[in-house]
Specification:
The protein is an alpha/beta fold. 28% of the residues lie in helices and 21% in strands.
């Protein structure tokens, strides 16, 4: 799996943008500390500047330095649903650049449950990607390699094969955790029940 590891590292290290499968839909991402690459994602997608990107990794530990200590209710959700189709929006730390969060004080973090994505994070510098879905704004999310290629050929620098690890096609659930309060911003693949709230 991942025959082109050196190419992936090289593209990202040089400010490039890559397309990859996750457990939900196909993603478009770059290294979070590269402002030019982040701006390129906004250009590619024609995305409104007030819509933040999120941070994803293969391990929650890689994401913890980008956020302030996560409230207990958030930690409970992480234990239950990471890796998986849940994005937790929580207070960011100083390590998370404002250009990723649209100048907001919070950032979304997620650990997808997909082996190809996990392998990409394992090999790249810092093990974290600033990411969004691999489609133009107001266009349907890409659910297959073919759709991702249709959406992103000629725009992204590299489209990585899914090696048979298919995306389920439904976006992640997005939940905000501030203090001990939960706010559901988007109901997606994971349905939170009363036991979570």
């Amino acid at each position: 799996m991942l025959e082109n590891q050196e190419e992936i590292i090289e593209v990202l290290s040089n400010g490039g943008v890559i397309v990859y499968v996750t457990d939900t839909v196909w993603g478009l991402g770059c290294l979070p500390d590269n402002k030019t690459a982040v701006e390129k994602i906004y250009e590619i997608k024609k995305r409104e500047k007030q819509k933040p990107l999120i941070l994803m990794s293969n391990e929650v530990y890689n994401l913890l330095e980008y956020v302030k200590p996560i409230p207990k209710i958030g930690q409970k959700l992480i234990k239950k649903y990471f890796p998986g189709a849940l994005t937790i929006v929580t207070e960011k730390s100083d390590k998370t650049p404002d250009y990723i969060t649209s100048n907001m004080s919070t950032v979304g973090i997620r650990v997808p449950d997909n082996e190809v994505f996990a392998k990409i994070c394992e090999i790249i510098p810092g093990h974290v990607l600033a990411t969004t879905s691999a489609n133009l704004s107001h266009q349907m999310s890409a659910k297959t390699y073919i759709q991702a290629k249709e959406n992103m050929t000629g725009l992204a620098d590299l489209i990585i094969d899914d090696y048979g690890y298919i995306a389920k096609g439904l976006e992640s659930t997005v939940v905000g955790v501030v203090g001990n309060e939960l706010r559901i911003f988007r109901q997606g693949q994971i349905v939170l029940d009363n036991a979570d709230l």
